[in-house]
Automatic annotation (TrEMBL):
Xref: SUPFAM superfamilies: NAD(P)-binding Rossmann-fold domains
InterPro entries in alphabetical order: Epimerase_deHydtase, GDP_fucose/colitose_synth, NAD(P)-bd_dom_sf
Homology family: Belongs to the NAD(P)-dependent epimerase/dehydratase family. Fucose synthase subfamily.
Lineage: Bacteria, Bacillati, Bacillota, Clostridia, Eubacteriales
Protein name as catalogued: GDP-L-fucose synthase
Length: 308
């Protein structure tokens, strides 16, 4: 890809979008377009069209989305489905209308059926019932990737999709009501240590298994796909390694140096029991993650202490 190509990163203030911008700059891409939420409401079709008419981006990373952890997904399903559908419909349609050269849509592994065989291959999409706590978000994301597929099929648009596993890293959301598990645990253990609390609450039973990918690896994989992949089917992005929530909590506890107890609160939902990506396709394309979980958590904790 031409280093002077005009690239729009939608959602550049978020966890993934900010990492994509950092990685693009590191690789020497010079012409990166961004808009804050205040400058451009992606839910507004007219505003999106005006923005496109003004800028005509050639390449698009669609990393703007309403995202959240298990509780936020469960409590605000209407917001999750509506906002995500609006954002992706507007951006994908504008990219089509203005002949963007390529677009990458970002999904999430919660799109796969709750009881999908593990590890989850790309082809298991739409083969069973979804996990109820994040059904609204999953339906929106499934619509987005299917839309990319059908625009490619009908019009020949080069719109591709990827499915990242659970992500974490700098610019994560550390709000305990809406965050994902890793930033929540970092904050809880840090505060418990500072305040000398005897225990930390961990939601659920601790038995669910999750896979975690540092967002700098995620951004690298996104740019790799943008530069090297043109297929119709989405591509899983993950490490292929999983840990239980209990193991994760113990690792975060150790890194932070907290000496108290873990208290599992099974009144809070566990969510899907397991969602491990099959990353054969990504490896065959030639990309592999490089940040292991322990060093990734250390990096995230450093960012939290310096910025939060
Ligand atoms: O990261 P998380 O919110 O999302 O929760 P999901 C993962 C697991 O960690 C669940 C447990 O079993 C939680 O019960 N957990 C333990 C906690 N302590 C905490 C805590 O303090 N905060 C949080 N948030 N969880 C989301 C989906 O699912 O994953 C989204 O809802 C999206 O749609 C995202 O796909 C990647 O992995 O369960």
């Amino acid at each position: 890809m031409d280093r002077n190509a005009k690239i729009y990163v939608a959602g550049h203030k978020g966890l993934v979008g900010s990492a994509i911008v950092r990685n693009l700059k590191k690789r020497g891409y010079k012409n990166i377009i961004t808009r804050t939420h205040g400058e451009l409401d992606l839910k507004n079709q007219k505003a999106v069209e005006e923005f496109w008419r003004e800028e005509e981006p050639e390449y698009v990373y669609l990393a703007a989305a309403k995202v959240g952890g298990i509780l936020a997904n469960d409590q605000y399903p209407a917001d999750f489905i509506y906002e995500n559908l609006m954002i992706q419909n507007n951006v994908i349609k504008a990219a089509h209308d203005f002949n963007a050269k390529k677009l990458l849509f970002l999904g999430s592994t919660c799109i796969y059926p709750k009881n999908a065989p593990q590890p989850i291959k790309e082809e298991y999409l739409l083969s069973g019932f979804l996990e109820p706590t994040n059904e609204a978000y999953a339906i929106a994301k499934i619509a987005g990737l299917e839309m990319c597929k059908f625009f490619k099929r009908q019009y020949g648009d080069n719109f591709i999709s990827c499915m990242p596993t659970n992500l974490y890293g700098p610019y994560d959301n550390f709000d305990l009501k809406s965050s994902h598990v890793l930033p929540a645990l970092i904050r809880k253990f840090h505060e418990a240590k500072e305040e000398g609390k005897p225990s930390v609450e961990v939601w659920g039973t601790g038995t669910p298994l999750r896979e975690f990918l540092h967002v700098d690896d995620m951004a690298d994989a996104c740019i790799f796909l943008m530069e090297n992949y043109n297929g119709e089917e989405h591509v899983n992005i993950g490490t292929g390694e999983e840990v239980s929530i209990k193991q994760l909590a113990e690792t975060v506890k150790e890194i932070i140096g907290y000496k108290g107890q873990l208290l599992f609160n099974s009144d809070k939902p566990d969510g899907t029991p397991r969602k491990l990506t099959d990353i054969t396709k990504l490896h065959e394309l030639g990309w592999k993650h490089s940040i292991n979980l322990k060093e990734g958590i250390e990096d995230s904790y450093k960012w939290f202490k310096e910025n939060y």
